[in-house]
Write a structure and sequence with these properties.
Layout (H helix, E strand, L loop, with lengths): L2 H8 L1 H15 L4 H22 L20 H17 L2 H30 L1 H8 L2 H4 L10 H6 L2 H21 L12
Length: about 190
């Protein structure tokens, strides 16, 4: 795997903070866009929580929970969260920035993760990717969602990040006078 892909995968969170500043600066949220976008983002975070509660990261390959239907439900949830935030931000340039960020960083993260999983779990991971693991239970026995496992996987950080992002967009909308305030545009 090229070194650039590995580096991009490792830097996706710090890069996310840099992109978040630009996105917040350009965002033009409205009450309606905040509601619609927040709902989409919450569905994405719900998918992430569900996935995190079925996986012992870096220690197993599982076909439990959403892993039965999605190859990478954590990243699918992240993409939905990004789409929701783009909707909430209500700006075409912001949407393009978020799409470019997600396309590059999630692709790099998936490639990096798949290389790790192939190296660590070999044929077990290959059976999962082919879809045979879900039918045979070869990767892990079915199990119930476990909130403690989601917390152990640090999913609470993504929840907090989403809450902060939405709050900042609400504050920007308030400052811009969307919620009846006396923002910079009202004199």
């Amino acid at each position: 795997m090229p070194d650039l892909v590995r580096r991009l995968a490792r830097l996706r969170v710090p890069l996310g903070f840099v992109f978040a500043i630009v996105v917040l600066w350009l965002a033009q949220p409205t009450g309606s866009s905040l509601i619609r976008g927040s709902l989409v983002a919450m569905v994405g975070e719900g998918l992430r929580i569900w996935a995190a509660g079925h996986l012992n990261k870096s220690r197993e390959v599982t076909s439990s929970g959403p892993y039965r239907w999605f190859g990478h439900p954590l990243y699918a949830g992240s993409a939905m969260m990004g789409a929701g935030l783009a909707i909430a931000a209500n700006d075409l340039v912001v949407t393009l920035i978020i799409a470019a960020y997600l396309a590059t960083t999630i692709t790099a993260a998936i490639r990096s993760e798949e290389a790790f999983l192939r190296q660590a779990f070999g044929d077990q991971y290959e059976r999962y990717r082919r879809g045979s693991a879900g039918n045979s239970g070869a990767t892990s026995p079915p199990r119930r969602f476990n909130l403690a496992q989601a917390i152990a996987n640090r999913e609470h950080r993504a929840v907090a990040g989403l809450a902060v992002a939405v709050l900042l967009l609400v504050l920007k909308a308030t400052y811009n006078g969307v919620f009846g305030g006396t923002g910079a545009g009202h004199q």
